[in-house]
Design brief:
single chain, nine-stranded mixed beta sheet, two-stranded antiparallel ribbon, 10 helices, 11 strands
């Protein structure tokens, strides 16, 4: 069954799932798991004191910034993970995919980026998700996990759900690509990511990883905010914490001038294919109840990505498509009234039950 929720219908949905912001205290702990191919993955667990009998939830970050900076900033309004753990009464896990944050980095990331091809491709990251899912299932005693992925993380999470549908109780993608069109301003022919000689291929100039100073985090976010006063939309404390955590995710960041963190470019190659109409996985094998969320002002995903995913996901037990009006790509880090509260209500409403219901 598919339900499409647009801006007009969202007001009704915003009255639902009005649970307390926190259900008691949260306990945070960090640990590591090892993937089937021997890669060490760093994981953070947030466990509420009032833990309900629900599947654990895994949060999957996007192409550039690692898990803790994306989902667990130490300032008010900066931890989607804490808000969901408290509201849902579920254990929440945040992973760093290989090459990011506290997880193992390929040896090529110690060499200049031009000496390797894009690292941490999707077919590898699904192994990272599987290792974390296995640990989360073991800790919960259950048979499945819920997945929520942001941007490229949504593509990775859905890829995993298509390969092991029986291991996923719920799937949420937030601003994710899915090969819905061959037109994309950042990845199409003539863009910086395309090969000038073969526009349908990724530029050979894109190496194994990229260096990202803090200043590189703001242009796309600022352009997305449709008002002059960016602080009225995005709390300056969130902005500062996001930059600090992104830089802290790479132990070598401070050795560069200006300080800069490494991010693997495999996500860029995968996204290039998706943005040009190629699908890295088939949503028809996904069986979990699925929520596709897209921000109206998103620059990464396109309406046709959600539409095409919904068309393909014929075996999902439930399918809901939501557009968050006047929300940006970074909606979970924006101010409450700029889409973040609406996002939380949608997530709590969708994830409030168990996968067996």
């Amino acid at each position: 069954m598919m339900t499409v929720v647009t801006a007009a219908a969202l007001g009704i949905r915003m009255l639902l799932a009005a649970l307390p912001a926190q259900a008691g205290e949260l306990t945070r702990s960090d640990f590591r798991v090892t993937t089937a191919d021997g890669v060490g993955i760093r994981v953070r667990e947030l466990r509420p004191a009032a833990l309900r009998d629900r599947e654990p939830l895994i949060l999957v970050h996007g192409a550039r910034v690692a898990g803790l900076a994306s989902f667990d900033l130490d300032v008010p309004g900066g931890s989607l993970a804490a808000d969901l753990a408290g509201r849902l009464g579920r254990a929440v896990y945040i992973l760093d995919a290989r090459g990011y944050g506290g997880s193992d980095r390929a040896a090529a990331m110690q060499r200049p980026p031009e000496q390797s091809r894009p690292l941490s491709r999707g077919f590898q990251v699904v192994r990272d998700i599987d290792a974390v899912a296995e640990a989360a299932r073991r800790r919960s005693g259950g048979a499945a996990v819920a997945l929520l992925g942001w941007a490229t993380g949504g593509m990775w999470a859905a890829y995993y759900a298509s390969l092991w549908p029986e291991r996923v109780s719920h799937l949420v993608t937030l601003n994710a690509l899915y090969g819905g069109s061959a037109n994309h301003p950042a990845f199409g022919p003539g863009s910086a990511n395309a090969d000038p000689a073969r526009p349908d291929r990724l530029s050979p100039r894109i190496g194994g990883y990229a260096l990202n100073p803090a200043a590189s985090l703001w242009p796309s976010w600022d352009r997305s905010i449709p008002i002059e006063d960016k602080a009225a939309w995005r709390d300056p404390a969130i902005k500062d914490a996001y930059a600090r955590a992104a830089l802290a995710s790479d132990p070598e960041a401070a050795q560069r001038q200006p300080p800069a963190f490494r991010a693997p470019q495999g996500a860029i190659e995968d996204s290039f294919y998706q943005a040009n109409g190629r699908r890295l996985f088939d949503a028809s094998t996904i069986t979990a109840p699925t929520l596709l969320i897209r921000s109206e002002l998103d620059f990464w995903s396109r309406p046709e990505d959600a539409e095409t995913f919904a068309h393909d996901a014929v075996h999902a037990r439930q399918l809901r498509v939501v557009t968050l009006p006047q929300a940006t790509h970074y909606v979970h880090l924006d101010r409450a009234g700029r889409g973040r509260d609406a996002l939380l209500r949608e997530l709590v409403d969708f994830l409030g039950g168990s996968g067996s219901e």
